[in-house]
């Protein structure tokens, strides 16, 4: 019995840590939203999560080469919008442009990488909540 109780305590602790990390992540993401001037294109912070994905050009997001610049490219935050009614379903939208990546300040480049990772972190929570709600709705219909 104590083994089940220990697992429950461990799970509760992890959930609590994730919720704290999520709250802190959102706070920092909002700060980056303003400091990187993404708010010049998207005025309402919550609208940022209407995009299907957010990527960047000019630097790597691969874990083994995170933040490594791609010479000759331009550092840019790109959002991918999806419209199933449109003739062209997905559309890239530039949210922020910073120039040639070789000329960008290291801190700025790191802030851009952080912005993308933090957006993806929050978006993953939103996706998790969405599917959890769908499962709850589906289960309610079965009973």
List keywords for this structure.
17% strand, 143 residues, 3 strands
Description:
The chain is an alpha+beta fold and 143 residues long. The protein contains 2 helices and 3 strands; from the N terminus they run H-E-E-E-H. A 3-stranded antiparallel β-sheet has the order 1-2-3, with helices on one face. It is globular and about 55 Å long. The mean pLDDT is 89.
Topology:
Elements: H1 2-35, E1 53-57, E2 74-82, E3 90-100, H2 106-142
Antiparallel strand pairs: 1-2, 2-3
Low-confidence stretches: none
Mean pLDDT: 89
Helix content: 40-55%
Task: Quickly count the helices.
Answer: 2
Distance between the termini: 31 Å
Q: Strands of the largest sheet, in order across it? A: 1-2-3
The count of β-strands is 3
What is the 3D form?
A: globular
Order of helices and strands: HEEEH
Global Rg: 19 Å
**Approximate strand percentage:** 15-25%
Largest β-sheet summary = 3 strands, antiparallel
- Overall structural class, as computed from helix and strand content, comes to alpha+beta
Instruction: Please identify the oligomeric state.
Output: single chain
Write a brief structural summary:
This protein is α+β, with helices and mostly antiparallel strands and 143 residues long.
């Amino acid at each position: 019995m104590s083994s089940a109780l220990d697992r429950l305590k461990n799970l509760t602790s992890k959930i609590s840590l994730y919720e704290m990390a999520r709250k802190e992540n959102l706070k920092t993401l909002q700060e980056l939203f303003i400091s990187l001037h993404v708010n010049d294109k998207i005025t309402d912070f919550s609208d940022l999560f209407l995009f299907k994905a957010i990527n960047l050009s000019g630097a790597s997001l691969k874990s083994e080469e995170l933040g490594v610049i791609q010479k000759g490219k331009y550092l840019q935050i790109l959002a991918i919008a999806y419209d199933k009614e449109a003739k062209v379903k997905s559309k890239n939208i530039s949210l922020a442009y910073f120039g040639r990546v070789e000329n960008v300040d290291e801190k700025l480049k790191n802030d851009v990488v952080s912005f993308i990772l933090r957006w993806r972190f929050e978006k993953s929570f939103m996706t998790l909540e969405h599917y959890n709600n769908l499962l709850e709705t589906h289960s309610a219909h079965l009973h």
